[in-house]
Amino acid sequence: MYYATLSSATTAETLTKPAEKQAVAIARLVKNKTGMSINVLQYPTELINKTPQRMLHVIAMALDMSPETYRMKTRVRNVVELRFIATLFLRQHFPALTLHQIAAYFGGQDHSSVINGLSRAYNLIYVQDAQFLKKYNMALQSVTAWLRREA
Predict the structure, then answer these.
(1) Of 11-15, 81-85, 123-127, which range is least confident?
(2) pLDDT for residue 5
(3) What percent of the chain has pLDDT over 90?
(4) How far apart are CA 138 and CA 82, in angstroms?
(5) Are residues 106 and 141 in the same domain?
(6) Could you tell me if 31 and 82 lie in one domain?
(7) Does residue 27 belong to any structural domain of this protein?
(8) What's 89's domain CATH number?
(9) Structural domains counted in the chain
(10) Are 93 and 51 in contact (CB under 8 A)?
(11) pLDDT of 13-28, one tens digit each?
């Protein structure tokens, strides 16, 4: 699955025009051949503004860090925990993303780094690490609020 951010000039109307024309043509064809009329209901299957990049931005802002921090080649605990939390949320909310694609958001790491990060994050949650859980809960609140606003 491909996620892209559309320009602000893009509206729902410009996105649905081609689909609407195709649906009208199909409805006419069915009407002419069978005499039955059909109604076509269009609705978005995904939110346009719901992208992995935006989610990463929301998480970084929730933890008072810069989004550029994800790409830093460092093992400082704050930065590493930021990547752990972001990885957890990306896997949860964007299941179509591969481990390799997730790694690309973090400065070109490989998929095994993402697997290790997920494992360590789950372990920190399991052992109830207070510092990590505080950050995780702050990010969870921000992401939940962001998803509600976008809905």
Answers:
(1) 11-15
(2) 46
(3) 51
(4) 11
(5) yes
(6) no
(7) yes
(8) 1.10.1750.10
(9) 2
(10) no
(11) 555 566 677 777 777 7
